Amino acid sequence: MKDTFGKFGGLSAILVGVLSIIYAIFYLLIARQAEFLGIYGSWLILAVSGIFSSAAYVALYQRVRAAGEGFALWALLLGVAASFATLQHGVYEAGLVKAARAAGTVTGTAPSEVDPAGLAAFFVVGIVSLLFSWLILKGGALPRSLGNLGILNTVLLMILYFASAGGVQTLILISGGLTSVIVGPIWWIWLGVKLRQG
Question: Which domain holds residue 19?
């Protein structure tokens, strides 16, 4: 029987990796030239990635659950919750940017009311990354090097969360850049390719 959802989940994972890079382009580059387009677009991209990451987590759960059913289910539940928080965060922030433009005001850089200090986006996703990576290493259904890369991404996500919570800009830039532009996208795209291979 063909694993149609595994292929869809794999495509979703690839899209999350690509969207992460596009998000960075909008937020870091386009926003410098066209502030509204760059910031508004980046939040919408974040929201869309929340939808696709949930599908990728389900496909990953299906692939690694034999290595530890309870841990895999826990990772799935946390992952889907974080995906929803990402969707909600993106839509909420995009709405704020649009409302600020309509009112002729500038959007502030206050902590998000939806995901303070990146609790879901960095800390919870870091736990999810750790759990799934450990199951990849334990089970052998996916390459061990993918699991090792996931562990590295976990470390970066945790550094990013605590740096964000503490306002340590240098660590935010380093860990955020590495996880959102390099390590994270490579992990998601590689995962997607492997899930699509069945």
Answer: 4-197
